[in-house]
Give the backbone structure.
Amino acid sequence: MSYLHIAKLCLLLVTFFFVTNVQAQFYNKEVVAKIKVEKNSEFLSFTATAENITPSDYNLRYDFMVFNTEKNGEITKENVEDRFFIKANEKLLFPTITINYNVEGKIILVLLLYDGEDKPIGQDRIVLENGGQSDVQNLIQKPVQKAVSQDQAAPQDGFVIGGLVTENTLTKAGRDFYRYFYAEYYNKQIKTTKNIEIEEVPGRFRNTRISVKVADQLVWRFFSQPKKSFLKEMADIALNRSIAYLQQLEKQKETFIHY
């Protein structure tokens, strides 16, 4: 690689980090950018994600970049970018970048989200030294720490049980709805300590009534139909309502802690 090419990449990195530090407070306010890390036997997998925490839909663009600095100082850049549409309170997963676990040198992963006017609105960054073996281990084993009130403090053993999605259904339509709901819940990698309950009870005529509750709070209710497309539509709506309520609870908790 030519000296001029290396200089341009270095300038790009310096400019990016300067802008990031100056404008960080404006990022991740409407759509949150997050790089999800997973470790396999020989590879590290980094998945770019975007989570809409507003009641509005957006047309956006993402740019997922990897800067690799070799021991000789040579810098290479790879990236994946595309435009996407994200619904209100939706979480999306983008293509995964895989890196050999034994790679040497410094690796920087950057995820940027741009609005319709190509202005950055979301960002996340991971820096890995010497292949990142110890860094990634910390990222995987130590989740992001958040301030909690005394009554919300983690148990002494440090183990926290995640929320469950439970069902109490009566019919095949109810079981199908649960299956569609949980499949999307799992695909979106939702992490919460709140339980979600899906309950089906006898309704009017020959229909049943299905309710979805988050932490005992009703977020969606409808009369069932056996049609697959209808149940999938209801599952999408119920999941979006659930995510919106979980985000509302998180904001309330942060406000309570702040004040």
About this structure: The two ends are 53 Å apart (CA to CA). The CA atoms of residues 206 and 224 lie 10 Å apart.
